[in-house]
Amino acid sequence: MYQYHCLNPISPVGLELLNENYTKTEDMANAQAVLVRSAAMHDLEFSKELEAIARAGAGVNNIPLDRCAQEGIVVFNTPGANANGVKELVLAGMLLAARDVVGGIQWVKENGQEEAIAKMAEKQKKQYAGNELSGKKLGVIGLGAIGVKVANAATHLGMEVYGYDPYVSVKAAWELSRSIKHANSAEEIYANCDYITIHVPLMDSTKKMINEDALKQMKEGAVVLNFARDLLVDEEAMLTALKDKKVRKYVTDFPNPTVAGAEGVIVIPHLGASTEESEDNCARMAVEEVMDYLENGNIRNSVNYPNCDMGECHMPARVAVLHKNIKGIIGKYSAVMGDADINISDMTNKSRGDYAYSLLDLESPVTPEVVESLKAIPGVLKVRVIK
What pTM was computed for the model? Predict the structure, then answer.
């Protein structure tokens, strides 16, 4: 029997997947799994009962990843589950930047009581006319789940699309339309594209990647869209570029005092993944990841431990070991099993940075003494008996 705790409301579509082996607890200290959306977890204490945290969404800035890894807690996210919702809003952002729809609607609202509003509109509308997207060049930086969808959709709008991602996955490459042009660098995107949209994770290497230098390299009158993370853009530099007419519009999904109400900025109140469908998809994926980990020991879409999948266990026992990525540790597991006269029928070990994960299928059950022997090995962080 497993217990789970929800730090935020989680879509029932996901929770309904939990069977009779799962019960909800209001006390996080008793939970083996925590489901979360945006709640801040950095100041929370984690009990030794906690095995997994699943973020129903892509960003994990609200979770202390390194501390979780050190405590043997696997953190999951749900990449791609909200991709379509974000993609649609990016397309909407491009349209809002191309044609001043918001300004036109506001004008109509302000003049709604005028009897001659229809005649007035014919004279006024040229101020909001704008341009079409067809024939314009779009640069997509980051070809993950969202970037690929944005790039492919833009081709159907008649745009000439350039994509840049030095780490593009095989899966993304297969899904990418063959009409999309490969850019060799972000600088190539800056120099050639009328619209630039960024879809990269926030890391030290990407923080404020759209900075003064990047903005200077852009085409005169470019439009920049940011539906990924606010800190990817140096917003003070962006406001200067807007004032100098280097950038025509900046569209962001992240309101803050710097950009809210600023000239040339279209600020959307973080609506990217806020659709019913996205929330359902994220909840479903988060629950499935947690169930597979708790029941089978498999890791899929973790952000602090390596992915590892041995399917369902058909042997008498399966043990999972979360440990530091250090030399010689696998041999010590084998020695413990050999001393206990337990044969390892199958085994896999994966690493990710400083941390690693091992799954062992065994031909006989493990005893508490074997578990304690595994825990005593230097570098071992947690041992789980899956079966």
Answer: 0.82
